[in-house]
Amino acid sequence: MTEEIKKGLAGVVVDTTAVSKVVQETNSLTYRGYPVQELAAKRSFEDVAYLIWNGELPTEAQLKEFQERERAQRAVDDKLVQLILDLPKDCHPMHVVQTAVAYLGAVDPEADTEGPEANLAKAERLYAQLPTIVAIDHRRRHGLDPVAPTKDLGYAANFFKMVFDEVPADEVVRCFDVSMILYAEHSFNASTFTSRVITSTTSDLYSAVAGAVGALKGPLHGGANEAVMAMLEEVGTADKASAWIDDALAKKAKIMGFGHRVYKNGDSRVPTMRKAFEDMVAVKGANDLLDLYNAFEEDFVGRKGIYPNLDYPSGPAYHLMGFDTEQFTPIFVMARITGWTAHIFEQQANNALIRPLSAYDGEDQREVPDNRG
Ligand code: CMC
């Protein structure tokens, strides 16, 4: 075999993008030129969604218009509500999200209409409706009826209202909003690349998003945030962390929430999300969970020099916000819909079919036998 194989496309630059920049050397991440930590400190997820799609932060008037459009589109149709309610209660919530996205494509007469305006309208509708979809699914698993969206609340507060039928303290809503900003976009990660591959065939935006949802579900990608919480629950308490890690490493298991394909010396989003997690610990008085979190991190980083990624603090933070563990990755979808669709627009604007080559290592060419033998 003479071809050079780039397993996992590691280190391969596939295309240009103006949406975000990941700088491996300095572990930094910018969205449209703005450092993500500064966006999380100074802006809301609504501002950031607008930025990711439009390239600039909104003015006061632009933000108001954008928020009004989002609030007006939150409700989903009754058939979709019924479709969600009819799915098995023990199926993974990412299958529910994927089914709902496919449904929204099926009922949109403009699904195959091309052009930036039509596609931005579809992206904004998905951004407005995904929280409603996730909330309906969260509640049905507890035997609870859906809570209708309300136009009186901002994006994050409305989501809490639809899930829990109440809005928590402002600090909790703010921590959630910060997580959404940090999860919104991350260049050519596996799910975004999936959406670009699908778009490159000139397929529609819903198909690209449904494919991206499937890629995000895996524990090596978005599924890590729920896997982190399941892992911390299995470990139990801080004093058990070391023995648990011994055991996991002896089995050659991957430790969820640690390591990154691009960042090798720490993920720039982690300090901001860790602070949000600590704020949640303070609100809930969950010091045992913080002790476990710290002990586990210190032990694992000390042994392997592999640092936490965003999923490590976000998993326990969502837990303290009251969300079911299996809904953490659908919440990630609510944020990443912005990044995915911005990349879909870029791919559409400057398309080339994504079709790599493979190096064949199977049987040499041979004749089909005349008989089955
Ligand atoms: N636990 C144990 N060992 C690890 C881990 C980990 N989490 N991450 C990397 N390693 C080791 C790995 O075993 C390998 O060791 P060796 O060279 O001795 O075989 C070495 O580090 C390189 O790992 P790799 O898997 O080849 O590196 P990668 O760049 O392909 O993997 C990763 C990146 C994210 C898939 C991996 O770090 C991992 O599986 N992490 C756990 C899952 C996780 O937290 N995923 C979320 C990723 S970030 C957010 C997101 O995208 O959603």
Automatic annotation (TrEMBL):
Q: Which UniProt keywords apply?
A: Acyltransferase, Transferase, Tricarboxylic acid cycle
Organismal lineage: Bacteria, Bacillati, Actinomycetota, Actinomycetes, Micrococcales
- The organism encoding this protein is Brevibacterium linens
Biological process annotations from GO: carbohydrate metabolic process; tricarboxylic acid cycle
Q: Which reaction does it catalyse?
A: oxaloacetate + acetyl-CoA + H2O = citrate + CoA + H(+)
The catalytic residues are: 260, 311
Keyword Transferase included in the entry's annotation: yes
Q: State the family it belongs to.
A: Belongs to the citrate synthase family.
| Protein name per Swiss-Prot or TrEMBL | Citrate synthase
User: Which SUPFAM superfamilies does this UniProt record tie to the protein?
Assistant: Citrate synthase (SSF48256)
GO MF term list? citrate synthase activity
